[in-house]
Specification:
Keywords: Signal. By secondary structure, the chain is α/β, with parallel strands linked by helices. The chain contains ten helices and 18 strands. It folds into two domains: 200 residues, no CATH class; 205 residues, no CATH class. Strands 1, 2, 3, 5, 7, 10, 12, 13, 14, 15, 16, 17 and 18 form a 13-stranded mixed β-sheet that branches. Strands 4-6-9 form a three-stranded parallel β-sheet, with no helix packed on it. Strands 8-11 form a two-stranded parallel sheet. The chain is elongated and about 80 Å long. The N and C termini lie far apart (90 Å).
Length: 462
């Protein structure tokens, strides 16, 4: 009987501990609720001072739960500032996600997660900002006019120093009405920045810094633009914020144009994805000459004096310096016709850029397609997609024969005298409408392609 009583008491105590652990959020109500044992959502408040994550003094047991998900959605727009205190919460450092909604501005000096990342030297996983204004203040003051001075604040550790990935507008709208000082990303540990739902009138723009080069110590390597209408220039692709940029990906969007030298500052770029709904119009209007600034320092195949006598060594350089360009036609309207060959005459093969062509259908094996994928053997990724498979249905020798039959030196020479009549009917219509003012003026002029590269590479790479 006594043993049964002890057993019962022990079970009651264990259940109490388990229930107490699971229901810690009862102490945070009505502002916050636990949607599961490790997820906390705070929605019923209009000031961060009303959020209190300290346990009641009569509770002796510490909170041992490690939260991996936290959603903060005040019931009216408020400023994200030092009033938010999370010191009494335990966060799962490896997979913690913060969702912020209904924020009207951010205090640049406020980072309630700093103690976690400084203690472990490991950034948290994800921060997602939605239904908010991407606006920043410095010590409660707008600082657009002294942006350069704020960059000199050596003790500044903004919010994004504590996270690996930032999502802007992933679930809903984000307002970019204010230009942003690049210092927002100073000392950031972000590796990935993803922005969704931008438009030509609501887009992220950075303030220009007076000094040409300022070391922000920004670590962003991957930049994704999704479900947006975009004009790409350096007010968006800031050279200081994206100094270490490795991958630029524009996905399920319309790219209306870009400044020709937009990629010039980025020396570590290895991957460019253009998954566009308007790929045909973009190619015809803007061309691909902006690619000449990728690997701009590389003159590997144009200068014989720099060519190594051993091709194996050159292959090592090709492998190390190559850049993958993924062209994905999301509507499947563009077929790279023969008549559009001259649109691609300046494609910078010599800069070791390898194109991957994707669409929702099999394309005819035109000389335009062959010209683009002719060096497929040396790419890190397979250029032989299902869209261009007709060019590879036979043997490699047959592909080399197609290269020979296309007679690219002759085609390139004819492009020097290319006129609007040499374009496809769709390209002619677009070019004519531009000539009469029906399109924007973002056309980038073409420059003559050096035929020397083709002769050399086709000879030595067989």
């Amino acid at each position: 009987m006594f043993i049964n009583y002890l057993t019962f008491s022990l079970v009651v105590q264990i259940n109490f501990v388990l229930i107490y652990s699971i229901n810690h959020c009862l102490n945070y109500e009505p502002q916050c609720q636990c949607k599961s044992s490790e997820r906390i959502e705070c929605t019923n408040f209009n000031n961060f001072t009303k959020l209190n994550f300290k346990l009641p003094t009569n509770k002796k047991m510490p909170n041992l739960k490690h939260y991996y998900y936290m959603k903060i959605s005040p019931n009216e727009p408020i400023k994200f500032d030092n009033a938010l205190n999370l010191d009494d919460l335990n966060l799962d450092m490896n997979k913690f996600q913060l969702i912020l909604n209904n924020i009207d501005s951010f205090e640049l000096t406020s980072n309630p997660f700093l103690k976690y990342t400084q203690k472990t030297e490991t950034p948290l996983s994800v921060i997602s900002i939605n239904n908010s204004s991407f606006k920043f203040v410095y010590r409660n003051k707008e600082f657009d006019w002294f942006c350069d001075l704020v960059t000199k604040d050596t003790e500044l550790n903004p919010l994004f120093t504590s996270f690996k990935s930032l999502y802007l507008g992933h679930a809903s709208y984000v307002n970019f009405k204010n230009k942003i000082c690049p210092v927002v990303f100073k000392n950031t540990n972000l590796e990935t920045l993803i922005i969704s739902n931008m438009s030509l009138t609501n887009r992220l723009e950075f303030l220009p810094l007076d000094k040409l080069e300022i070391n922000l110590n920004s670590k962003i390597r991957n930049f994704h633009l999704q479900s947006s209408e975009i004009f790409l220039d350096n007010s968006l692709l800031d050279k200081n914020v994206f100094k270490l940029l490795n991958k630029l990906s524009i996905e399920f969007s319309n790219l209306t144009g870009l400044s020709k030298d937009v990629l010039k500052p980025f020396k570590f770029l290895k991957s460019i994805n253009l998954w566009l709904f308007n790929l045909d119009e973009f190619i015809i209007n803007s061309g691909l000459d902006w690619l000449i600034y990728v690997n701009e320092d590389l003159r590997l195949f144009y200068d014989y004096e720099k060519l190594d006598k051993k091709f194996d060594k050159m292959k090592e350089i090709v492998s190390r310096r190559q850049v993958i360009l993924e062209l994905s036609d999301e509507r499947g309207l563009y077929g790279y016709p023969e008549s559009d060959f001259c649109l691609f005459k300046n494609f910078p093969h010599s800069r070791l850029i390898f194109p991957i062509i994707k669409t929702n259908r099999e394309l005819e094996c035109t000389c335009t397609v062959v010209w683009l994928v002719q060096f497929w053997k040396y790419a890190h990724r397979d250029l032989r997609t299902s869209s261009v498979i007709k060019c590879f249905n036979l043997t490699t020798i047959s592909f080399d024969l197609m290269v020979y039959n296309c007679n690219f030196p002759k085609r390139l020479k004819s492009c020097f005298n290319n006129s609007i009549d040499g374009l496809s009917s769709k390209a002619r219509n677009i070019q004519k409408s531009k000539a009469f003012g029906f399109k924007g003026n973002n056309t980038i002029p073409y420059h003559s392609h050096l035929v020397l590269f083709y002769f050399y590479f086709s000879y030595f790479c067989k």
